Amino acid sequence: MKTMAMALLLVLQLCFISMEFVESSSHHYDHKIVRLPGQPSVDFQHFSGYISVSDHQKNHKALFYYFAEAEKNPASKPLVLWLNGGPGCSSVGVGAFSENGPFRPDGQVLVRNEYSWNIEANMLYLETPVGVGFSYSRHSSNDVAVDDEATARDNLVFLQRWFNKFPQYKHRDLFLTGESYAGHYIPQLAKLMVEANSKEKLFNLKGLALGNPVLEFATDLNSRAEYFWSHGLISDSTYRMFTSVCNYSRYVSEYYRDSVSPVCSRVMNQVSIETSKFVDKYDVTLDVCISSVLSQSKAISPNQMTQRIDVCVEDKIVSYLNRKDVQKALHAKLVGVRRWDVCSDDTSILDYQMLDLEIPTISLVGSIVKAGIPVLVYSGDQDSAIPLTGSRTLVDRLARELGLNTTVPYRVWFQGKQVGGWTQVYGNILSFATIRGASHEAPFSQPERSLMLFKSFLQGRALPLVF
């Protein structure tokens, strides 16, 4: 009798586990992508759709995401959130479909990216804030302040509710990654996560990786002058003006206050003439078909916003994501806009508080490190928008402020038989690295080296010293 009772109990437990599995897997079934138009066959699952980040139907806000599970053994791989910058640029269009996602549009079809980051992790791409890409708000964003604080809050709610839909990922190792203005988004989101965890362990946050990030307005932007000069883009006399008469942070600050002074206007005009509109500021050495308009830095390069020469890569993404059959396959819709765009800079769609650009986030990075969470800052070394020199200076200064000793001295790292870049590590928790030959969008321009950096970051290992 006792044996029968135990057998019955075991059957009931198995039924319960089975029901629990069905319930958890059915949570996200409606978001599963059967097949994207022109997509090659793959062994991994991918999903996309909307997560509501508001509780009122009247002020309904929904953020759109694309999620590609790891190519192999997704259950054993970490979860990685990727955010692009701008503010106002799409993590789906830029991140997933041109940088480190599994596919890239090419005419009517998608081709595999052999250096996709979902080789190493389950990759989650979020279009944030509302008004970016397919993400939307039911009311005009002019009625609500869209700023860093609101964005961080919405991103936190998104993650909490996304976990409700994908409960099997709730306790998975979680990494936050991104580039450009994500230097604001990610530390601010991480701060809210650490605060939430102090009350109840909700997030298994294991690390942050920030690519060519805006961390401290003046340092990041003013390092541009020396970068231009050292790469031969401006003359000695213009360099002297650019560092004394009107530096770049002053110009951007005046620009967003609609008060550009005659002296700054004169200096910037000379800089623009000498650097030439035929050189891509996000990759100063490349002269082939590149994503110059994937400029998440357009906000921090306002004088260059009309200097868009080569749009071939963006054209493919825009064309693909505006196809009705693609939108249907992605469970996406256009709300309040006529078409999907890589970057939303129309103030009727996205009215972002651009003066938030001036608020430093490097101190937040320090608080994350103090909370015991590793941080990597990396730089594509051909980017003049947020040059490596500014980022390196900020990381070194932060290490000294935190009292962290150098644990890996400044040295080269290898990918294959070539130097992949340079790196320095402080206290085994704060790292800086460059990716040799990479642009502002490092995974786009140097995919193999970027994947090596990403893999080392996830594994908590120093970048390889030998090939």
From TrEMBL:
<dbReference type="InterPro" id="IPR029058">
    <property type="entry name" value="AB_hydrolase_fold"/>
</dbReference>
<keyword id="KW-0378">Hydrolase</keyword>
<dbReference type="GO" id="GO:0004185">
    <property type="term" value="F:serine-type carboxypeptidase activity"/>
</dbReference>
<keyword id="KW-1015">Disulfide bond</keyword>
<protein>
    <recommendedName>
        <fullName>Carboxypeptidase</fullName>
        <ecNumber>3.4.16.-</ecNumber>
    </recommendedName>
</protein>
<keyword id="KW-0645">Protease</keyword>
<feature type="signal peptide">
    <location>
        <begin position="1"/>
        <end position="24"/>
    </location>
</feature>
<dbReference type="GO" id="GO:0006508">
    <property type="term" value="P:proteolysis"/>
</dbReference>
<dbReference type="GO" id="GO:0005773">
    <property type="term" value="C:vacuole"/>
</dbReference>
<keyword id="KW-0325">Glycoprotein</keyword>
<keyword id="KW-0732">Signal</keyword>
<dbReference type="InterPro" id="IPR001563">
    <property type="entry name" value="Peptidase_S10"/>
</dbReference>
<dbReference type="Pfam" id="PF00450">
    <property type="entry name" value="Peptidase_S10"/>
</dbReference>
<dbReference type="InterPro" id="IPR018202">
    <property type="entry name" value="Ser_caboxypep_ser_AS"/>
</dbReference>
<keyword id="KW-0964">Secreted</keyword>
<comment type="similarity">
    <text>Belongs to the peptidase S10 family.</text>
</comment>
<dbReference type="InterPro" id="IPR033124">
    <property type="entry name" value="Ser_caboxypep_his_AS"/>
</dbReference>
<keyword id="KW-0121">Carboxypeptidase</keyword>
<comment type="function">
    <text>Probable carboxypeptidase.</text>
</comment>
<dbReference type="GO" id="GO:0005576">
    <property type="term" value="C:extracellular region"/>
</dbReference>
